[in-house]
Amino acid sequence: MKPVLIIRTGRAPDPIRARHGDFPHWFRLSAGLQPRQLQVVDVANGEALPPPKEVAGAIITGSAAMVTERAHWSELTAGWIRDAMDVSLPLFGVCYGHQLMAHALGGTVGYLPGGREIGTQLIELTDAGKRDSLAHGLPPHFRAHTTHEQSVLEAPAEATVLARSARDPHQWLRYGPHALSVQFHPEFNAEVMRAYIRRKHSDMHREGSDPKRVFGEVGATPLARRLLRQFANTHLQNGGAF
């Protein structure tokens, strides 16, 4: 039985991790996977990825790092993503993982114009998104949690834009039949989102946003959250993970 990789590109800040757990735990719960089905590879800490043909699929996490730093471990992972695409491996990137997939496949990543996007945002499906199989059952607009400074500024030429927010036109991309990525965080619950806003309170003030208002607008995001479960159910069942 092939494992599902969680490609760990970072970790939650210590105070958040102490109270809420860390990225692999959040993704496991959201995707509905069992611990025995998973293999966590901490690429940011130098761990090596197995060949794509030896795994059922991969989820690529967020990170406090920046894709534009072109760290050695990050560029190695970008190369692995290209190899994974060559064998049509199911891939789901989130935040840093989203940006890294876009970078690996020919897109452009940089700082989001106007500064960080943080809080519970309204996500709008594009016409292509409304027709996408993974969006089945989603309304034209749904809410999702975000926290990022960098974003995909230009999508890869072969990618399809499935959703956007008011400030980010590339919130959800599809790169092929089994490969997608999202800028928002389907693995976050509302308490985790609030914890990030508390942590970024001073930065938000300095940048001219209102953390109290953003904090008050945080709410549940069940539609965004179920995307990981739908991805697992749709793309991983036949790969040996279930």
General description of the model:
The mean pLDDT is 96. Helix content is 34%, strand content 24%. With 242 residues, it is α/β, with parallel strands linked by helices. It is globular and about 45 Å long. α3 packs across α4. The protein has 9 helices and 11 strands. The N and C termini lie close together (8 Å). β9 and β10 form a beta hairpin. The strands form 2 sheets. A 9-stranded mixed β-sheet has the order 2-1-3-4-11-10-9-6-7, with helices on both faces. Strands 5-8 form a two-stranded antiparallel ribbon. The chain has helices at residues 14-20, 23-31, 72-86, 96-104, 127-131, 190-199, 201-207, 211-216, 222-236; strands at residues 4-8, 38-42, 57-60, 91-94, 108-111, 117-125, 141-148, 150-154, 160-164, 172-176, 179-182.
Strand content: 15-25%
Q: Can you count the beta strands?
A: 11
First-residue to last-residue Cα separation: 8 Å
In which order are the strands of the major sheet placed?
Answer: 2-1-3-4-11-10-9-6-7
Q: Percent of residues in helical segments?
A: 25-40%
Rg estimate, integer Å: 17 Å
Q: Number of helical segments?
A: 9
Order of helices and strands, N to C?
A: EHHEEHEHEEHEEEEEHHHH
SS class? alpha/beta
Q: Outline, from the CA principal axes?
A: globular
> How would a crystallographer describe the biggest sheet?
9 strands, mixed
Low-confidence stretches: none
Mean pLDDT: 96
List keywords for this structure.
single chain, 242 residues, alpha/beta, 9-stranded mixed beta sheet, two-stranded antiparallel ribbon, 34% helix
